[in-house]
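mind reviewing this stuff:

——
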Amino acid sequence: MEPRDSIGELADDRALLGRTSTAERVADILRTRIAEGLFPPGTRLSEDGIGGALGVSRNTLREAFRLLTHERLLVHRLNRGVFVRVLTVDDVDDIYRTRRLVECAVVHALGEPPFAVDGLADAVAEGERAARAEDWKGVSTANIHFHRELVALAGSARTDELMRGVLAELRLAFHTVADPRGLHEPYLVRNREILGALGAGERDRAERLLARYLDDSRTRITDAYAKAVDDPEA
């Protein structure tokens, strides 16, 4: 069963449901809370606790669980319940292969400059503010925002939805690694470099920077994650 403070925080989200509560809205709330680390990988999700906190029916909650299981954020274990998924190292590696295919293709396919980089600039500034406050969880969130804004340059709702799931899944790995500063701080400068290239209309340079960024991040994070899952107390 979840810690009481997790359920207490989730109860604050009840107002977001309004009078037109749906499984999709419940799934949105749980997806966000999982991404924030409120329910870490391996946590069993209590139907009674979550349903009571959000004021939704068991059927609605089960449908939300089904949606998030389809997105690979949850896993159902027979006779044991629903759990936040624990990724394998191969999962993390595959997420990065997907990111490289999608994100680099988005940048490669951009039309003529100027590019709409305001959202990227906001995400870079958000990350730098979080770093100054030594809020490394906030740096991680800002980095996710940066990559979502990057993919949004494609103007494709389907690509946005794909990357929303991929990046939410990736955060399951982030919550398992013990050194968030070491994981995320090096990419603040690289985000600003990519922003600068796109702001200057240098699409090809931005694509090269992004490809190197993702390759380096893939190596760094898969190594860190492998150590974390091999020795959870390290």
Observations:
- The mean pLDDT is 90.
- The radius of gyration is 18 Å.
- Residues 203-230 form the longest helix (28 residues).
- The first strand starts at residue 44 and ends at 45.
